[in-house]
């Protein structure tokens, strides 16, 4: 499918997280197209495959079960991960 280009095309500035631009450049090189064409092709593919009717929003964790889920997750962490998480939470609490 051919898409509109040039002065009649809409322009939109996008900020990429670190490293994403390089990944797009590599994908574009492998696909033998420009970075812009690569981005457009991938967006169209994603949008064309988007469900027509999204599932109704619901909580990821049933109400009232958040604490138990967090405790189970915390227990599965390594000692180093537990220390890092607690340090992060203490830092956030001080702000």
Task: Please supply descriptive tags for the structure shown above.
95 residues; mainly alpha; Arc Repressor Mutant
Blueprint (SSEs and pairs):
Elements: H1 20-31, H2 35-48, H3 66-76, H4 79-93
Helix pairs in contact: 1-2
Structure commentary:
The protein has a domain at about 5-50: Arc Repressor Mutant (Orthogonal Bundle), CATH 1.10.1220.10. Helix 1 (about 20-30) crosses helix 2 (about 35-50). The chain is about 55% helix and about 0% strand. With about 100 residues, it is an all-alpha fold. It starts with 19 loop residues before the first helix and ends with a helix. It has helices spanning about 20-30, 35-50, 65-75, 80-95. The model has no long low-confidence stretch (mean pLDDT about 85). It contains four helices and no strands. The radius of gyration is 22 Å and the shape is elongated.
CATH topology value of one domain: Arc Repressor Mutant
CA-based gyration radius: 22 Å
The number of helices is: 4
Count of distinct strands? 0
- Given helix and strand content, the structural type is mainly alpha
The CATH architecture assignment of one domain turns out to be: Orthogonal Bundle
Q: What are the low-pLDDT stretches, counting only 5+ consecutive residues below 50?
A: none
> How would a textbook summarize the main sheet?
none
What is the approximate shape?
elongated
Rounded to the nearest angstrom, the distance between the terminal CA atoms is: 52 Å
**The CATH C-level class name of one domain:** Mainly Alpha
CATH superfamily of one domain: Met repressor-like
- The helicity comes to 40-55%
What is the average per-residue confidence, as pLDDT, rounded to a whole number? Answer: 85
Please write the string of helix (H) and strand (E) elements. HHHH
Sheet-strand content, in percent, reads under 5%
């Amino acid at each position: 499918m051919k898409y509109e280009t040039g002065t009649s095309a809409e322009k939109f500035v996008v900020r990429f997280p670190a490293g994403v631009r390089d990944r797009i450049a590599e994908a574009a090189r492998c696909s033998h197209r420009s970075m812009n064409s690569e981005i457009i092709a991938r967006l169209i593919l994603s949008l064309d495959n988007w469900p027509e009717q999204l599932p109704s929003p619901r909580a990821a964790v049933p109400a009232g079960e958040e604490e138990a889920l967090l405790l189970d997750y915390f227990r599965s962490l390594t000692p180093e991960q537990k220390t890092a998480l607690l340090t992060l939470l203490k830092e956030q609490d001080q702000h």
